[in-house]
Amino acid sequence: MALPPLPAFPTGFTFGVATSAYQVEGAADTGGRGPSIWDTFTHEPGQIADGSTGDVACDHYHRYPEDVALMAGLGTDAYRFSVAWPRVQPDGTGPANPTGLAFYDRLVDTVLAAGIDPVATLFHWDLPQALEDRGGWMDRDTAYRFADYSALVAAALGDRIKLWVTLNEPVVHMTYGYAMGVHAPGRMMLFDAFPTTHHQLLGHGLAVAAVRAHSGSPVALTNNYSPVHACGDTAADRAAVAAYDALHNRLFTDPVLGLGYPTEIDFDLSVVHDGDLDVIATPIDGIGVNYYNPTGIRAPDEGHPLPFEMVQLDGYPTTGFGWPVVPEGLRDILVTLTRRYGDALPPLYVTESGCSYPDVVGPDGDCADPDRIAYLDGHLRAVRDAIDEGADVRAYFVWSLLDNFEWAEGFSQRFGLVHVDFDTQVRTPKTSYAWYRDAIRQARR
Ligand code: FCB
């Protein structure tokens, strides 16, 4: 079924693709890379759905020329990748490992030679294990280590990176990694994980200054945003919605935009030192928005450990992950951010949007993924609608270029425009790849 052409996007709008280091690079022991918390976690039995690890992943470390050629074939404007901290500083401190930096140097030059803008995320969850052994993000010192590491990367690549992202989805790293234990480092501290919020934000603020010392390109912070759907209309339900919204959508945005921590949740703020909030509110050039789905929330039952309870949203198609497909949620969150923060809000970049389906390469060699095409079409239209409603949105990055290692789900969730056979490393562009290539052309007209 042919979809109607996409509406034209503003001149200069960036269409990109995204990946992250641990999910694609592999080469876990190559070039002096140290272990990260994800190496440790994936090697513990029972943590990953299919028992897999990112040891090899998509072998992007060795196959990046082929992957950049795939990006060039798409006509994508930009490639968002992440730098693996343990490649640059194997134990999280001290001088840079030249072999680690040299990989990103080659990658960035290859991306630029293909006419594509490199966009670097400095932290996409792969903390050096040596720092976790000293407390990880629970330890204030990790914020300063992150700033040092960011300075090393910016000194090496600062002349070529077109957009920097300090942290990826700190809310997910805090909740999944430290509060609920389903991601590395696998700690289950519930609200006692609050110091990891504060220290990530402090690290972000310090890193902004560290990057700016070496690069004139814009610096952003990326978070996961999810419109909250109330599943109930009692006062208790409304309080639960406000609490969840504060935790998921505001905790890592309000302080960055100078508004301090939301008061809807009673955090122990004793880790906040004088002056920290000023560092955290260092002006930035963009907010990265990763959007996948809205969240249903109602008041918790008595004895529930959290001030809200999540409810599966019915009535929508779902992805392979079981996530509801709600394109207007992307318009909703972009417009909500615009209205909520007004002049304090810098430009918005959709740094991730995409879906997983159980895609297979058929006997004819094709990999048909019509559901992904419909998903991306709907979400691009939602971005266009948000722009019409006044949101200053500068970019849209598809998650992901490649099927890759999807954290606790291992290789069981395929998000790529390109299918990857994890036994042979053969890449097969899916039908969504050709669709996105054409969509970019249409939207640029
Ligand atoms: C986001 C992550 C990204 C990927 C997608 C599906 O939360 O930032 O690495 O796993 O989800």
Describe the structure.
It contains 14 helices and 13 strands. The chain has 445 residues and is of the alpha/beta class. The protein has an 8-stranded parallel barrel, surrounded by 4 helices. Strands 6-8-9 form a 3-stranded mixed beta sheet, with helices on one face. Helix 3 runs parallel beside helix 5, helix 12 packs parallel to helix 13 and helix 13 packs parallel to helix 14. The longest helix is centred in the middle third of the chain and has 19 residues. The relative contact order is 0.14. The chain binds beta-D-fucopyranose. Beta-D-fucopyranose binds next to loops. The site of beta-D-fucopyranose (FCB) has 12 residues, from loops.
Descriptive tags:
single chain; 445 residues; alpha/beta; 8-stranded parallel β-barrel; 14 helices; 14% strand; globular; binds beta-D-fucopyranose
Bound molecules: beta-D-fucopyranose
How is the biggest beta sheet arranged?
Answer: 8 strands, parallel, barrel
Q: Globular, elongated, flat, extended or rod-shaped: what is the shape?
A: globular
Helix content: 25-40%
Q: How many strand elements?
A: 13
Terminal residue distance:
22 Å
* Count of DSSP H/I helices: 14
**Global Rg:** 21 Å
Beta content comes to: 5-15%
The secondary-structure class comes to alpha/beta
Mean model confidence by pLDDT: 98
Topology overview:
Elements: E1 14-18, H1 21-24, H2 37-42, H3 60-74, E2 78-82, H4 85-88, H5 98-113, E3 117-123, H6 129-132, H7 141-157, E4 163-168, H8 170-179, H9 194-212, E5 219-224, E6 228-230, H10 235-250, H11 276-280, E7 286-290, E8 295-298, E9 309-311, H12 328-341, E10 348-353, H13 370-388, E11 393-399, E12 418-420, E13 427-429, H14 431-443
Parallel strand pairs: 1-2, 1-11, 2-3, 3-4, 4-5, 5-7, 6-8, 7-10, 10-11
Antiparallel strand pairs: 8-9, 12-13
Helix pairs in contact: 3-5, 7-9, 8-9, 12-13, 13-14
Bound molecules: beta-D-fucopyranose.
Beta-D-fucopyranose binds at residues 20, 23, 168-169, 172, 224, 290, 352, 399, 406-407, 415.
